[in-house]
Amino acid sequence: MDPMENKPELIFTDLPVDRAFRPLEYPITGELVQEFMETVGDRNPLYWDEALAQEKLLGPPVAPPGLAAIYARVSYLQDYTMPSGGVLAKQEFEFLGPIRIGDTLKVEARVVESYLDEKGRKRVTFLIRAENQKSVPISTIRLYAIWPK
User: Fold this and answer.
1) What backbone phi and psi angles, to 5 degrees, belong to 8?
2) The whole model's pTM is what?
């Protein structure tokens, strides 16, 4: 889908259990990491100092694990827009390996719960898995939301 096109809203009826979204290819660039670091105020040198990363990690600089919050959300919204009024109820992250600058992550999102709670609110839980270009698992994320439409 052309990013300039209007994307449809992702509504609750589009989110049955086991709904899988198309895999997201998410490149981890130095520019992305720099923007993230500036936005959140993180100055950890392991994210930009090549020599320190080599010394401490035996490899290129790593990316902040907080990037998982971005690619998790993008994984199910790449073809949709989020309706207004939703609430992020909770996120759970399990980090399985480092994200390295230069990696391209394959991120797959699936709906694992979709139901009306006791107050009639629409609840959705996504399970989002990411692996790098070598098929090495990077993260597993559970994202719990109260859906607006």
Assistant:
1) -70, 155
2) 0.88
